[in-house]
Specification:
By secondary structure, this protein is an alpha+beta fold. The chain is 35% helix and 24% strand. The strands form two sheets. The chain has a six-stranded mixed sheet. It has a six-stranded mixed sheet with strand order 5-6-7-8-10-9, with no helix packed on it.
């Protein structure tokens, strides 16, 4: 009785590996098939399933001549690993002097459908960063943030009753230490978008830096995926816009993974650098799931004049997203 059960388990395992291999290939079809974008996201989970499948298959009861077929699972495993490797492998970064100018940021995407923002507010109130960006800021949430974030000054806000609201806060200690708020404005990426993107310009040690709190549409259909592509193209155009300070940061909810086709294409179209490179996968969504089932969709991109010094995912804040912390320093080599 044990042998048929074992054989059944091996067969199911082989079938699962076959499905993962097919999904690995179909994930590259996202430019022409919108479902491919969803298959492109769970690359870390594919790796986990394939490693488990190979382990089970090679230790199974079948003869070695059959086990050799399991080694074909190495092909999709290597494909997925190659896409994840830039984030997992350490990167050579020129050490920055401790006295070099730097900027510490936190980005949080709040769930506007959560009626209790106390976890978000308590988390932000206890932070000691320079700049905070918050997405999904509603007209009801903004006064609570202003009243309870006593360490911070509201720099700009565009509250909305839907998920399009946002706000920037700057630490009072940073203002006292020389950081200055130059100005803010609402932009649209692309120009026909009804989603306001809040832009903020500050100076640190006399050097200006332009920041945008970016929020992309969820790619839940072919039309929405096509519009997300337009949003990323507009972000790429913003990053190269003449007249902006040389130091530029785009941080927010991109609603895609860093190994997705659109994300990689965006980086190819710009000189922006992904702050996640070399810092691990750092998944942020959905926060209700175990970490092995999460994917990173909250990102920070910056100009090559800056260098990521630290990056990490923070604690839960009553949202389906986890906040991210990023510290950048001025790259004097450029």
């Amino acid at each position: 009785m044990k042998l048929p059960v074992a054989q059944m388990m091996v067969g199911c395992n082989g079938g699962l590996m076959g499905v993962v291999a097919i999904a690995t290939v179909l994930g590259f079809a996202s430019p022409v098939w919108w479902w491919g974008s969803y298959l492109d996201y769970p690359r870390p989970q594919y790796c986990l399933l394939l490693v488990t499948g190979l382990f089970v298959g090679l230790l199974g009861p079948q003869a070695w001549t059959m086990k050799r077929w399991w080694l074909l699972g190495l092909i999709p495993l290597l494909v997925n690993t190659a896409l994840l490797a830039p984030f997992l492998l350490p990167r050579d970064r020129a050490p920055l002097p401790a006295t070099a100018p730097h900027l510490r940021l936190i980005h949080a995407t709040y769930d506007r459908e959560n009626p209790d923002p106390s976890a978000l507010i308590e988390y932000l109130a206890n932070q000691t960063v320079d700049v905070v960006s918050v997405l999904e800021v509603t007209p009801e949430l903004l006064p609570q943030l202003q009243a309870r974030l006593t360490r911070y000054q509201l720099a700009a806000a565009e509250p909305r009753p839907n998920s399009h609201g946002s706000a920037w806060f700057v630490a009072k200690t940073a203002l006292a230490s020389g950081l200055q708020i130059v100005g803010s404005n609402v932009i649209h990426l692309p120009a026909d978008s009804d989603r306001p993107i809040l832009s903020l310009t500050v100076t640190v040690n006399g050097e200006a830096i332009a920041l945008v709190c970016f929020h992309a549409i969820r790619p839940q259909s072919a039309e929405r995926l096509a519009y997300q592509a337009k949003e990323f193209q507009a972000l790429a155009a913003w990053s190269q816009r003449p007249g902006l300070p040389a130091h530029r940061i785009a941080i927010g909810d991109f609603n895609t993974t860093p190994w997705s086709h659109l994300f990689r294409q965006t980086l190819q179209d710009t000189s922006l650098v992904n702050s996640l490179l070399g810092f691990g996968l750092q998944p942020t969504w959905p926060s209700q799931f175990p970490a092995v089932l999460q994917i990173p969709i909250d990102h920070c991109l910056h100009s090559p004049t800056l260098q990521t010094r630290q990056r990490r995912v923070e604690a839960k804040i009553g949202s389906d997203h986890l906040p991210i912390f990023v510290e950048v320093g001025w790259n004097r080599a450029l």
